[in-house]
């Protein structure tokens, strides 16, 4: 079945450092790919998404590119801030089910130090 | 304000005592879903509903029930809770097909402890 694997955390960075969180997936169809973010004590929020190969999703300085050849969707940000401290989830949505089936990775916790 | 609400936010109960966690959305979304979040496992889907009176099992449905009598509400029922159902639960909803069905909007979560 479909699956998502993301790098284990926690990831600890200093403010203004470069961030990469790796995500790879396996899917039989042509999924949409997502990054969701969960701030402390809150539910998940969509950070960005990409619906087809070579698409780049971007939001709030974060970017991720849908790489079909490497089945990856790595999250990057050039300069992190303390306010980016959160848990980040990579996910895929199976279009064959009309987008109703979403598979999440285990999550990566990011700590950013001032 | 467009939102998904869940109640209660925190609940401590004992084994075998039936409980219901409510979920409501005000965005007229057709699709709703319940997840549980456990350390190291991410979010796992319990049940989902594609519309009123249409529900289906997710990956971990054992020990849970749901109903969808109205479009806005999707309660999660634990008929006889057990300690292995101690978890953080999230409800989510999505717009109809053609309007970004694959993007989900999450509630704030319900932290359940079963003693």
Could you characterize what this model shows?
The complex is a heterodimer of chains A (114) and B (115). By secondary structure, chain A is mostly beta strands. Chain A has no helices and 12 strands. In chain A, strands 2, 5, 6, 10, 11 and 12 form a 6-stranded mixed β-sheet that branches. A 4-stranded antiparallel β-sheet of chain A has the order 3-9-8-7, with no helix packed on it. In chain A, a hairpin with a 2-residue loop joins strand 7 and strand 8. Chain B has 115 residues and is mainly beta. In chain B, the strands form 2 sheets. In chain B, strands 2, 4, 5, 6, 9, 10 and 11 form a 7-stranded mixed β-sheet that branches. Chain B has a 4-stranded antiparallel β-sheet with strand order 1-3-8-7, with no helix packed on it. Chain B has strands at residues 4-7, 10-13, 19-25, 31-38, 42-51, 54-57, 65-66, 76-78, 87-94, 105-106, 110-114. Chain B is built from no helices and 11 strands. In chain B, strand 5 (42-51) and strand 6 form a beta hairpin. The A-B interface holds A 4, 32, 34, 36, 41-46, 49, 51, 89, 93, 95, 98-102, 104-107 and B 4, 31, 33, 35, 40-45, 48, 50, 90, 92, 94, 97, 101-109.
How do the strands and helices of this protein lay out in sequence?
The complex is a heterodimer of chains A (114) and B (115).
Chain A lengths: L2 E4 L4 E4 L4 E3 L1 E4 L5 E7 L5 E7 L5 E4 L2 E4 L9 E3 L8 E9 L6 E4 L3 E6 L1
Parallel strand pairs in A: 2-12
Antiparallel strand pairs in A: 1-4, 3-9, 5-6, 5-10, 7-8, 8-9, 10-11, 10-12
Chain B lengths: L3 E4 L2 E4 L5 E7 L5 E8 L3 E10 L2 E4 L7 E2 L9 E3 L8 E8 L10 E2 L3 E5 L1
Parallel strand pairs in B: 2-11
Antiparallel strand pairs in B: 1-3, 3-8, 4-5, 4-9, 5-6, 7-8, 9-10, 9-11
